[in-house]
Amino acid sequence: AYGTWPSSGEIDLIETRGNRGLFNQEGIYVGVQQMESTLHYGPSVGLNGYSYANFKLNREEGFNDDFHTFRLGWTPTTMQFSVD
Questions:
Q1: Concatenated DSSP letters of 18-79
Q2: Residue 2 CB: number of other CB atoms within 10 A?
Q3: Which residue of 17, 56, 71, 72 is surrounded by the most CB atoms within 10 Å?
Q4: Peptide bond into 76 cis (omega under 30)
Q5: Can you tell me the distance from the alpha carbon of 84 to that of 43, in angstroms, rounded to the nearest whole number?
Q6: Cβ–Cβ < 8 Å for 54, 81
Q7: Is 15 a known active-site residue?
Q8: Which member of 15, 26, 60, 61 is catalytic?
Q9: Which of 25, 18, 29 is nearest to 56 (CA)?
Q10: Residue 65 near residue 50, CB atoms below 8 Å
């Protein structure tokens, strides 16, 4: 409604990858062991403010073997993500 992405904003309550044993160059697991919540916003792709509104959580046991409760608390002044 406000232009190209991410001008209208995007809320990613939960993002995760389906790979076990996937890790980045620093040796941090980024597959099923990592979940991420993010807000994407800003006037253009190059000015996406996600780095100011991003939460990552790693658990050795992963997020793929059980059910989890993901929450978003949204007030007029804040947004708060939580898991379990």
A1: S-TT-B-TTS-B-STTEEEEEEE-SSSGGG--GGGSEEEEE-TT-SSSS---EEEEE-SS-E
A2: 10
A3: 17
A4: no
A5: 33
A6: no
A7: yes
A8: 15
A9: 29
A10: no
pLDDT tens track for 13-69: 999 988 888 989 998 889 999 999 999 999 999 999 999 999 999 998 899 989 999
pLDDT, residue 47, reads: 94
What separation, in Å, do the N-terminal and C-terminal C-alpha atoms of the chain show? 34
HSE value, Cβ hemisphere, 13 Å, CA-based, for 32: 12
Evaluated on CA atoms 18, 22, 23, 28, the torsion sign reads positive
Q: 68: which 2 tokens?
A: 């989890």
Dist. CA 44–CA 27, nearest whole Å: 31
d(CA 59, CA 65): 12
